[in-house]
Model the fold of this input.
Amino acid sequence: MSDLAVTTFPQLLLQHASEIPNCAAYREKHLGIWQEISWSENLEQISAIACGFSKDGFARGMKLAIIGENRPKLYQTMVAVQSLGGVPVPLYQDAVATEMIHVLNDAQVSFAVVEDQEQVDKLLEIKDQLKYLTHIYFEDPKGLKDYKLAELKSIDQLIEEGSAHQALNADFFINEVNKCKGDDLSIILYTSGTTGMPKGVAHTHENFIRAGTQSTQFDKLRHTDNILAYLPMAWVGDHLFSFAQAMVSGMTVNCPESKETVMSDMREIGPTYYFAPPRIFEGLLTSVTIRMQDAGALKQSLYKWAMDHAKKVGGDILDGKSVGLIDRLLYAFYDLTLYAPLRNVLGMGRIRVAYTAGEAIGPDLFRFYRSMGINLKQFYGQTETCAYVCLQPDGHVKYNSVGIAAPGMQIKLDEHGEVLVKGISVMQGYFNRPQDTANAIDESGYFHTGDAGAIDSDGHLRIIDRAKDVGKMLNGKLFAPKYIENKLKFFPYIKEVVVFGHERETITAFINIDFEAIANWAERRQISFAGYIDLAAKDQVYELIQSCVNEVNEDLIADEILSHAQVSRFLILHKELDPDDDELTRTRKVRRGFIAEKYAPLIDALYSDKSDQFIETKVKFEDGREGVISATVKIRDALTQYAKNSDNSRAELTHEH
Amino acid sequence: MSTNSSTQIDPRVVLRVENISLSFGGVKALNNISFDVKEHEIRSIIGPNGAGKSSMLNVINGIYHPQEGSIFFNDKTRNRMNPTDVARHGIARTFQNIALFKGMTVLDNIMTGRNTLMKSNFLWNALWVGKARAEEEEHRAKVEEIIDFLEIQHIRKTPVGKLAYGLQKRVELARALAAEPTLLLLDEPMAGMNVEEKQDMCRFILEVNNQYGMTIVLIEHDMGVVMDISDRIVVLDYGKKIGDGLPEIVKNDPEVIKAYLGSGH
Done:
């Protein structure tokens, strides 16, 4: 308490409004033009929102749901709610209405601020099942003109009423802010629900301010930095980066115009600080790869030479290690001609620090970005720890680790290899779930992450898999599914993989093709197809995927621990795994148990001699309707090869089945 | 008869066609067609292929000049419309076969919709100074509002030729809206679209009608859509009007059913 100068977010707002009143707090595109909201305007708007809420009956301790894409008004709402001693509860905006019922009731949400008509409709649809909700506010009035409901109001009207209220009670806002304490709850974030119902994770102001302060100091973030806020506000990463760190450092949070414009908005803004989950970096690399394949021969060779050189020395140059003069000059030349323009195209021209986390990132993918001069680093953390546990320090980036324990954090492994964490960012507990809290945090204050890891001699943590997913094959050897899946997912043609092998003799895989990449590949080969199902079943596509699987198997030969973990049979799924069908979580993590159950006939077929299998699956469309799709899925064998340990002769190829 | 009906007209009628007949040589495309369109309504024209729906729009639009009949629009009754006049007096339209400038960006295409509203002269515009500049900024702001409304921000700078068909249709609607018309003619805005695109388009049409209070005349083949969003429907078949009224009445009209099932032809 004494080590922090400022212990609550509303106080940070007051501080910036007086110290850097004219610097931009938020930037948002309105009618095609970036508009800035300065810190002094930010204070004005937030206090008006807070006064409006108070006038409508919002009192200390109440909960307010925030549902929508990243909009300044929604971030402002968070601070306004915190100023009144309330707790904001951000929800995933793409969740269907019925999924929201649990969270809204569990968190006892009585007020909701939503982005647009879509979200208003969802709330109205489930209104009868919500026990606490009384007020709904919307940001974008489009389509809501004819909604005449007493509980519905626009934020603009709220601000107007709040301003009037404030004019009469000038000290109200300041008095309310002064009542807030650092150990008040500042946010409830819901876990993605990889296992069971989502649980509310309750954090205090101090949790997030400490995590935010330490991490901004770690990377020397200042109010002149720019970040692009485009990931779900309900996700802990966005809350740490776009909210806590931004509130601590005073940097500018830029909100893209829409989901579809993120790439072009990023080019226009040129953020200096960037965060993206691995799949976005993967997607960017895929699009670069596809476009390079369409380029002429000269451009292709230039790209190949430059990238080979980057692979050789780029990482070392970024880490400040010694590199020969000629290599340095060549790197400088390629930087001028290729890396810098490419960085620019990706909107990464001004990046000082970029982070990734959420899922393990393939080392090759990670190296690609670092080698062309983007200071991409990994961190490690979860909702329960403000996403702040491990960070990779500049100059000490190990590709296969997530870094060292962050300042203020302690990590250790238990006897099963599970990672345990203690320190400034560990949550107060799950909201209204003392039993779950007791299960997660032991008596000595260590939070059990559920991840299986290893710590190397330098103190770097390496995450292998989810502790519960790591299994044993029938031959007693280690089965770490994610490790294999990530290796396969590095191919631009493969979007998602689920491998099986726990208590089995061999390892098999479900593969989801990347539709965009394969469609492009097929077009260039003049392979015609009718749609996703048709394309996924093409023999040529199977051959392409088979070559990817073979390559991974070959790669695995060299791995000391996992050389046995080669994929012997695989199939290409006829549909894309989708959060709407409960196959992925909203953060796009694979739900293994569910998939194994849903596609049981396919798994049985993988472990038989069958060469195809008919399957019928239910699908849910975006509008909530349900349908059924069916297909006969082909099954193929892959080449598995084992190094002979007895002598050093070449690997022998064996073709199973 | 026309004087008779004009004394009784509903004050909310913005457009009325009376006894329109149009022939191409020996082919009678429209035969003695009369109907009216009231303010703020969505008025649909349906009928099998070759029924004369697009011809009817072209008559209203002033592209075709009917041999017989008159059109009441904008407080005036006339025998024929003139396309420029029509545009200036607040009628905009989209086409069955998309008629955009394929090489130009979405933004530029929509800007062309503002053409009739631009007042500064060619020279000022070429120099882009003074009034012309202020005017362009004003028009651009309006266009951006429409871009926001139709949710096409992500393709603002994309050449139209590179867009998927469904999006091109949306851009065409955007261009028509840019003219700020009082009457909007839509010729099969949903043809060739998938279910999701159709839903989006329906939402936009209803919104245009609701938020901007625009009157809409719509030609559409998808009966589900037509019945859902129309206030009143005119049914044409072989150039003749065979039905006119509320969706539920038209839907159950035996003659309409017959025409759609194709029996008797």
Remarks:
- The CA atoms of residues 54 and 187 of chain B lie 7 Å apart.
- The mean pLDDT of chain B is 85.
